[in-house]
Every structure is written in C-alpha cells, then in structure tokens.
Amino acid sequence: MKNIGNMMKQAQQMQAKMQEMQAGLDDVEKTGQSGAGMVTVTVNGKGEMKKIKLDKSIVDPEETEVLEDLIQAAFNDAKKKVEAHVAEETAKLMGGLKLPPGIKLPF
User: For 43-67, b where at least 16 C-beta lie within 10 A, e where not — what string?
Assistant: First the structure.
C-alpha cells in the first residue's frame, strides 16, 4: 500500500507540473519563416498566431497565391517549433518516462 500511496503522490505532483507548463504556454513564442525570411509568423505555445511580418517586396496584388503559400509555410514552420518545444518540456517533466503509442497528453 505504501508504494501505491507514493505513486499517487508522484502522479499528483506531475499533474500539477503539467498544469503549470500548460499555463506558461501563452508566454512561449516561436517564429517560423518562409521565402528566405520574407514572411515570418510568430505563434504562441498554444498554436495561436500572434504576429505576421511581410517583406514589402513580396506584396504583389497579381501574385496573391504565392503570398498565401508563403504565409502558410511560415505558420507551419512556427507550429512545428512550438510542438517540438512542448514535446521537450513534457519529456523533462516525465523524467524520460515514455508513454505507450497512441496515448497523448492534453494540450
């Protein structure tokens, strides 16, 4: 019974740390780029776009499809960086504990 009590205590501590990390995701910002830096998108730790910056040289009313593709690519780049950050922070909290395939933590 003592082991179960310790496991429950550790699980509660880990849950508290996960909640802390999730609360801090609003403060995390990752920037993605495309078009050799002509488009930059900044995303917070929850995957919400916070900023977008466009180089004036790519703003051409006749080529909006190219601009749309560059924005999408920059957003996807930033989102991958956020996902990598969350995975890294989660791994730190889990202390190397691997979750079984298919089980994801709520983010």
Answer: bbbeeeeeeeebeeeeeeeeeeeeb
* CATH entry, 1-96, from 3.30.1310.10, 3.90.180.10, 3.30.2270.10, 3.90.700.10: 3.30.1310.10
pLDDT tens for 81-94 read 999 998 888 888 77
Q: Whole-model pTM above 0.90? A: no
Task: Give the residue extent of every domain in the chain.
Answer: 1-96
Secondary structure element (H or E) that encloses residue 43, with its range: strand 39-44
Angle value at C-alpha 41, between 21 and 28, nearest 5 degrees: 15
